[in-house]
Amino acid sequence: MASQTDFQKSFLLPKVVSSFIIGTETDRFNVYDVKFYPYFDPSNTEPVFAVVSQKKVYIARLSAQTDCVITMLHELEDEQELRDGDSSGLNSCSWCYVHQDQPLLALAGGSGQLKVIDAVTGNQFTTLIGHGHGGINDIATHPIFPWIVATASVDKSVRIWDLRRQSFRHESHTIIICGQATGHSEGLLTLSWHSTGRYLITGGHDHLICVWTIPDLAEGSSFWREIGPESRKRSSGEVHVIHFPHFTSSAVHHDFVDRVKFFGDLVISKAAKEGKIVLWKMTGFDTQKPPPSPVTAPKAEEHLDTRNGFMRTRTRGKNGVETVKISPEYEDQPPFERMLEFDAPNSEPFYMRFGLLLPSSDYPELHPVLAFGNTTSEIRFWDLERLALGYSVGLSPNKSSPVKKRKGVASKANRASIVSQIVAEEQDSALRLLQACRQHDRLRQGQPVKYQMVRWRMTKISQFHYQIVQGFLLMIRTSW
């Protein structure tokens, strides 16, 4: 059994190691997104990251030396955005690949095009068109299949793309469309995958949060046969359309929903002007069970502020007629349960994104950490694991030890088992926090919990736009 000292050492708080400012001709430089490359070799101690501004993309490497020198690998200009003075520019990026030795960076913004570049050469890999004149506000790469990318658009829809189809001229890169006329009523601002890859969650200008059930995208699944040329009878059949989400609610937030993420089977979300981040649970949502049938998805004519298909079940009567109704175990339960609120002051503007750091195959012992920055350059961190364990555990912000790193490169053979392990670890962390919320009234009411949060005032980057929030791991290399 671990000693109390070892137990405390496992709680690692971030420390400022390095910061830098990108040169610009103006006194205000907008950084909308930043992402570390997640597929690196564990033996590589120099992480690579990408920074997205309105007109430019920067790809850089962080030195492992004590002075943490940042080396700029590419500084790329988007010629289309530079020519179009009316465009809102780029706003999102996501790492992906078709072949692991060719890292790709997907970019999007006001043009509505998904632009993919080769991160090694800096050259264009492909440009995908499908959202029409609707700009793209967020990108998310599938957690298991890095060649699958989802985009959230102003045109009210989600598109899921398969980058492998770049090699097949006559096949559509779009494989799935969610909504467009039957989901969100206004433009989307955010989307995120569940760690199993079977669900997408979205939020938008309509104050709505939707959860979409996604088909199994593994090789050999029936999905690929259904959209393949052997099965489709018309060209439109190569794109699978999901008309209705299994969950939709406008009751969680009352303004623009600009950030949503799964944490296990829980959800963390925020909206503009509310000054808080909310942790909540959908009743009946359980990824340990098979995904629900499309038949149980609530239809748009059901005029409720919250519609939850995860509470429904299909039954067949003696006459053979099939009906859909609320499962008996959920008859007396609300469609969702608000668990906890995190105080997030000075966050009135919309499109301010929080970050969620989760355990990975390389750092399985890492605690899940929620981070959010506001308009005053203050960055707040919450260790969700420590929060779940209660109030008795204390740790000085100046005392921490390195996280144990898993050595060796995962082979394709054991990739699935590693993914399953990480999903299970995330689920366990979320379950512990859920149980803690239900046991401690103080916790559920959002009152202060000892050591639950660390605050930083980043005066050196005060000239940066508030939308640096998503990039907190770039501006301050953290020592976890």
Automatic annotation (TrEMBL):
Membrane-crossing residue ranges in chain numbering: none
Native species: Cladophialophora yegresii CBS 114405
KW Ribosomal protein (keyword) present: no
Lineage: Eukaryota, Fungi, Dikarya, Ascomycota, Pezizomycotina
SUPFAM superfamilies in UniProt: WD40 repeat-like (SSF50978)
WD repeat positions: 149-171, 181-214
Highest taxon of the lineage: Eukaryota
Keyword entries, A-Z: Repeat, Transcription, Transcription regulation, WD repeat
Family stated for the protein in its record: Belongs to the WD repeat ESC family.
Keyword Hydrolase: no
Matches recorded under Pfam families: WD40
PANTHER family: POLYCOMB PROTEIN (PTHR10253)
InterPro entries with a match to the protein in the record: PcG_WD-repeat, WD40/YVTN_repeat-like_dom_sf, WD40_repeat_CS, WD40_repeat_dom_sf, WD40_rpt
Official protein name in the record: Uncharacterized protein
